[in-house]
Design goal:
- It is a single chain.
- The protein is mainly alpha-helical and about 110 residues long.
- It has a domain of about 70 residues.
- Helix content is about 70%, strand content about 5%.
- Strands 1-2 form a two-stranded antiparallel sheet.
- The longest helix is centred in the last third of the chain and has 34 residues.
Length: about 110
């Protein structure tokens, strides 16, 4: 059986290899190859949600002032903004939970 079994785990702990093969972890040579950072990705997501809310507010204002009569478009924009905000809050909650779990780990 291939994989990490009890006997393979003991051998791995003793020698640092499984079945005489070295375990290697590939790491990017530079941050340019790795793509955007997690912080950049979060900032972009927050900016996208903010833009959806700004668009929904603009459409609601146009409807209120009589510049448009597209009620369906205003409702769709508002719902998109609401769903995006709810999703962002859930992602935030998951990030906070993960952070708290990491902080509970003993070093």
């Amino acid at each position: 059986m291939d994989g990490l079994t009890i006997s393979n785990a003991n051998r791995f702990l003793e020698t640092g290899s499984l079945d005489n093969k070295s375990v290697k972890i590939d790491q990017p040579s530079s941050t340019k190859d790795a793509g955007p950072s997690f912080a950049d990705t979060l900032k972009e997501a927050v900016n996208n949600v903010n833009q959806l809310h700004l668009d929904a507010d603009q459409k609601a204002q146009e409807l209120a002032t009589g510049k448009t009569d597209d009620i369906a478009g205003v409702m769709i924009a508002t719902e998109k903004a609401d769903i995006a905000l709810r999703a962002m809050v859930q992602v935030r909650n998951k990030i906070i939970d993960a952070y708290q779990e990491i902080m509970k780990m003993q070093v």
